[in-house]
Amino acid sequence: MAMAISCAATGALLAAHVLSAGQAQSMARKSPLMEPVPALTPFADAHAHFDEKDVAGGIRSALAARGRENAPMILLLMSPDTFDHPGHYEAEIILPEAKKYPGKIAVVGGGGSLNAMIIQSAATGEAGPAVQKKFKDRAERLLREGVAGFGEMTAEHFDGNTPYQYAPPDHPLFLLLADIAAEHGVPIDLHMEAVPQDMPLPAGLKSPPNPPRLHANIAAFERLLAHNPRAKIIWAHAGFDNTGYRTPELNRRLLAAHSNLYMELKADPLAKGLNYPLADGKIKPDWLQLINDFPDRFVIGSDQHYPEPHDAVQRWQEVVLLLNQLPADVRKKIGTQNIAHIYGKRVATALDMAKN
């Protein structure tokens, strides 16, 4: 697969436009539009979304962005949703269009159906053999249709574009999904706010629509990770924290304890939240140490939406600002090597073609 810009053009672009981290952040504050600065090392964006009302337009926008970002591949995920939310959708709406661009666009599915089944099961308490068979059949059908993995799933998701959602991460259907993922060699991409113990809803979040209290989930998350160590589980949105508990220290403990755990780095300049990895455009020392200590366990997951919103700085620009400050060998791992390992042969082959 040929990249949108040649290696020579990329080098020229980097030489002309790569700014220091402080300069880039300053530019974001002073200018209504920040000049795109591509990644120093090619990267696959493991977590992006698209406009479900304009699928073709979303894909065109993502394809056009690849050159500006130095991103040979973008993985588009379904939003985690419920059956009773109007307009929920699943991978079938994008797979036919995405298959026109093999190696450039990959689709990760399950957010609109498998996730909805888990949330429904958690609410009703129904998780018996009939429910599990229906769930497994649906997961395997998605794989046959061409999804590269399962996501975006959720165990704790605050109200926003989709309703508030909760299910224990060790729910029987999550455990079943881990077994299915391990059997087929694909990962699970999981959105889960960190809640180490039962706690009140954090200040700044409204109830309703969110509940007044949250259920502890870290111990249950560890039970999911331990259930099938062959199942690769990506904990989405490292760097985007709404409870204050997803600290570098918690990330470190879980990475050290569970070799099948991976994390996506996200940095949203318009919604920084708590435990943000950047300060004045520079990566914080504790985050830098964490990433350097576990270079095989992180990927980029910008949570960018396509078409790109009319914002001063896009999410991908902020996370590339972080990526460009890492050592070159770490950038290469986070950029493409870890994605190839997590997603397996099909994605690895596409990335190898992109680099040649």
Topology:
Layout: H1 7-17, H2 21-30, E1 44-50, H3 55-69, E2 73-77, H4 95-98, E3 105-110, H5 114-124, H6 129-145, E4 150-157, E5 165-166, H7 172-184, E6 188-192, E7 199-200, E8 213-214, H8 218-227, E9 233-238, H9 248-257, E10 261-265, E11 278-279, E12 282-283, H10 285-293, E13 298-300, E14 304-306, H11 315-323, H12 328-343, H13 345-355
Helix pairs in contact: 6-7, 12-13
Q: Can you offer a commentary on this structure?
A:
The chain has 356 residues and is α/β, with parallel strands linked by helices. The protein has a single domain (7-355), classed as TIM Barrel (Alpha-Beta Barrel), CATH 3.20.20. It is 41% helix and 16% strand. Strands 1, 2, 3, 4, 5, 6, 9, 10, 13 and 14 form a 10-stranded mixed sheet that branches. Strands 7-8 form a two-stranded antiparallel sheet. The chain has a two-stranded antiparallel ribbon with strand order 11-12. Helix 4 (95-98) links the parallel strand 2 (73-77) and strand 3 (105-110). It starts with 6 loop residues before the first helix and ends with a helix.
Would you identify the CATH H-level superfamily? Metal-dependent hydrolases
Q: Count up the domains.
A: 1
What fraction of the residues are assigned to beta strands by DSSP?
A: 15-25%
Radius of gyration: 19 Å
Assign an overall shape.
Answer: globular
- Unreliable segments of 5+ consecutive residues: 1-32
Number of helices: 13
In whole angstroms, the N-to-C terminal distance is 8 Å
Q: What fold name goes in the CATH topology slot?
A: TIM Barrel
> What pattern of helices and strands is seen along the backbone?
HHEHEHEHHEEHEEEHEHEEEHEEHHH
Q: What summary fits the major beta sheet?
A: 10 strands, mixed
Per CATH, the architecture is: Alpha-Beta Barrel
The helical percent reads 40-55%
Whole-number average pLDDT? 90
